[in-house]
Design goal:
The protein folds into three domains: 67 residues, Uridine Diphospho-n-acetylenolpyruvylglucosamine Reductase, domain 2, CATH 3.30.43; 124 residues, Uridine Diphospho-n-acetylenolpyruvylglucosamine Reductase, domain 3, CATH 3.30.465.10; 76 residues, Uridine Diphospho-n-acetylenolpyruvylglucosamine Reductase, domain 1 (Alpha-Beta Complex), CATH 3.90.78. Helix content is 27%, strand content 25%. The protein has seven helices and 20 strands. A hairpin with a 7-residue loop joins strand 18 and strand 19. The structure holds flavin-adenine dinucleotide.
């Protein structure tokens, strides 16, 4: 008998910051590593698709949901240790905000600009989350993952490549723990950076609305995705309940009852207009989950 919490036909709208998304056939919070291994092996043997979800702050789930297991470590894999020599050992369900606050309290410098990035450590590392010049991968030492066969694997910093909002962890492995070797910082400087980052976020981001943060990656070159979408005249454009934010054009917000189809229409529109006007191909930062293959090809191979 498993102790893991399972919810069948669970609406993923309740598990994403967008507040959008149809049901997962089964949402699972594995109780521990042994049960995670049992679940992954079962899914693998039965050919049930598995998707790993952190706190759902960087995903857009299709309106018809995901026909498989949505596995989240957010409620149960929450061990966090900071040693006297500034090493952080954290399970991937730890919220990034907690990790950053505890690191600041332990006088660790360098992570404070990440304050305010929502999500779990697992999602942050997979996405190589970053803000104001700092990235979660900066002090990364090693990580433990579990394969679909339920086996543990270790990756050192030499074995994983990180780039802008991207890491090379295999997509079919779930990240369960990571270690960071950090340095002592100067408390006054840490506080200063933390306040700058926090104020900047409040001033520039539409935090009153539900969203998944930046929809597109900033392209190479001088102009941010938000600037290009703004210059294409799209701020405030609505499709159904979704809107290209007036405050920050790289945010699509759920202005009330938005569907994934509404957001998808705005994504296509922004990509098309920016391509027409600036000959720049905007790449999605947000991950699409459960979308039909035909829709994915409209975005990824357009
Ligand atoms: C208001 C707002 C502001 C934001 N600001 C920033 C910002 O400044 N910088 C930034 O980088 N991002 C930002 N984001 C995006 C988001 O917060 C980050 O990408 C975050 O790190 C995602 O974490 P998550 O736990 O929510 O991941 P999810 O959205 O749940 O998942 C993201 C990806 O990671 C995978 N994943 C999650 N957990 C695991 C795991 N344990 N093992 C394997 N794969 C896993 C998922 O399958 C998915 O592919 C913002 C989002 C919002 C809503």
């Amino acid at each position: 008998m498993l102790a893991s919490v399972m919810a069948f036909d669970e609406p993923l709208a309740q598990h994403t910051t967008f507040g959008i998304g149809g049901p997962a056939a089964c949402m699972v919070y594995p109780e521990n590593r042994d049960e995670l291994s049992t679940l992954l092996k079962y899914a693998h043997q039965q050919h049930i698709p598995a998707f790993f979800i952190g706190s759902g702050s960087n995903i857009l789930v299709w309106d018809e949901g995901f026909d498989g297991f949505a596995i989240s470590l957010r409620k149960t894999f929450k061990e966090l240790t900071i040693t006297d020599d500034f090493q952080i050992i954290a399970e991937s369900g730890v919220m990034l905000g907690k990790l950053v606050k505890d690191a600041i309290r332990a006088k660790i410098g360098g992570l404070e600009s990440l304050i305010g990035v929502p999500g779990t450590l697992g999602g942050a590392l997979i996405m190589n989350a970053g803000a104001f010049g700092s990235e979660i991968s900066n002090y990364f030492q090693q990580a433990t993952t579990m394969t679909l066969e339920g086996e543990l694997k270790t990756y050192t910093n030499e074995e994983v490549e990180f780039s802008y909002r991207h890491s090379t962890f295999p997509e079919d492995e779930v990240l369960i723990e990571a270690v960071f070797n950090c340095n002592e910082g100067v408390p006054e400087e840490i506080q200063k950076e933390r306040v700058i980052a926090s104020n900047n976020r409040k001033t520039n981001q539409p935090l009153k609305f539900r969203s998944a943060g930046s929809i597109f990656k900033n392209p190479d070159g001088n102009h941010a995705a938000g600037y290009l979408i703004d210059q294409a005249g799209l701020k405030g454009t609505r499709r159904g309940g979704a809107e290209i934010s007036e405050k920050h054009a790289n945010f699509i917000v759920n202005a009330g009852e938005a569907t994934a189809a509404d957001v998808f229409r705005l994504i296509k529109l922004a990509k098309q207009k920016v391509a027409e006007e600036f000959h720049i191909n905007l790449e999605l930062e947000v991950k699409l989950v459960g979308f039909p293959e035909s829709m994915l090809s409209e975005i990824y191979y357009a």
